[in-house]
Amino acid sequence: MPVECVSVRDLGFRFDAKEVLKGLTFSVEEGDFVGVVGPNGSGKSTLIRLILGLMRPTSGEISLFGSPLRRFDEWRKVGYLPQTSSAVNRFFPATVKEIVGLGLVPAGRGGIARHDEKAVRRAMELMDIMDIRNRLIGELSGGQHQRVLLARALIREPRLLILDEPAVAIDSEIRGRFFDIITDLNRKRGVTVLLVTHDTSSIGLYATKLLYLEGSIVFYGGFDDFCLSREMTDVFGTFSQHLICHRHD
Amino acid sequence: MEIFQLFQYAFIIRALIAGSFVALLCSVLGVLLVLRRLSLIGDGLAHVTFGSVAIGLLLKVEPIYISMPVVALSSLAILKLTEKARLYGDAAIGIVSAVGVSGGVMLAGIGSGFNVDLFSYLFGNILSVTVTEVTVSVGLSVIVLLVIGSRYSQILSLSFDEEFARTSGINARRINSLLAVLTAVTVVLTMKLVGIMLTSALLIIPAVTAFQAAKSFRGTMVAAAILAVLSVWAGIVISFLLNVPTGATIVLLNFAFFLILYAVKRAPAFLFRLR
Question: Fewer Cβ atoms within 10 Å of its own Cβ: the N or the C terminal residue of chain B?
């Protein structure tokens, strides 16, 4: 029986007077690659932040790997790649190697960093950033920066990888390679992926499931179900549905 | 007088010892505060120290015993204001700072006769530090440095990317509260060295100077520490020889180091443009 990595039950979130999310119920099984899409303001990033425990839901429950979120402490199983434009300080005076090593910092213990040198090297080799390991994080291009942050997220060999708009501010050539790496992790290593993106035209190349949000779930399921669904044709229109489906085999 | 003759004076040795440890502490903490955009918290807490010193003088209690808990609570209050009242950090610091200064001025007005003592805390006098004060300064500095060392990786992770650190399971609230209290202790210790008015300078300037030459985070910490301790040693010696205020000399030396490193870093680009 597949393991449920993420389980969401009747999830709701309200910010001041505005209802951002309502009545979300879905689960993500081990090995899934779920593309979370929707228009701006649909609650995609809010959902991710709720799943990661960065915000508290107004209602409902979230479980990670079978444990309620409020009691979950196996954060080693979870890797997170934030948006490039989030709170990361790009001019932080730290090298690529030091930043990647931060992914190993455990909760509850915080002594002088006992970096596992082999794990840091493995993560940097995976992301092809060994040649820039001694450069400062502020000297890197957008694509290099994202690869460093992905290395940081992957160094713990998480079972669940959550990415929030990872391709913003990186050019199309790098974007392709970036997604190839993530797809490989999913297909060959069985890493479960939850990827938030506004780019509905290419998500079909990578994801196996689609979660379409507009404050509540419009659709959640496999791509084949989405592409063959007349109901979704009524909701999105033929052209928009085709745009999402046309790259998915 | 030869410079080496200075070291025969006990008060110079005491000043160098206390100053070195406090400078080391300020430099380490300063790097973290500047990166977390909390540079002015030192200034804010120094203002609160002013108020707490006035309370101590009014009650005829050694000011440090009043300052430590009051400043620590104020530091936690700044943290709470940013979290609960959704204030920006600088606004929260401004509120607490204003209350601290006002309290001090009020008490100075009520308690006649200790205005001169209060004034001496404004600018510090490291050359008058007593053996007890050296012991307390060194002891507390070592404790604070050990605490930071024991949580170094978590603090570093939080300082770079708080959201990611929280998703690693790091208790951000606890670490931030710990840093707030450690900052308070540092500010109170710095009071004797450079005075209330210049405390924030010793937290900020060595850190931003070290950033000019940063090649790694570890290197930045080491550079900030070396610069801070060097400025204290040179500042004490120069101020004694020239008979000028020690605190101000230390801060001006720090600024001179910043100018030098800033110029050195930008010299290649400047020379290239001149060609």
Answer: C
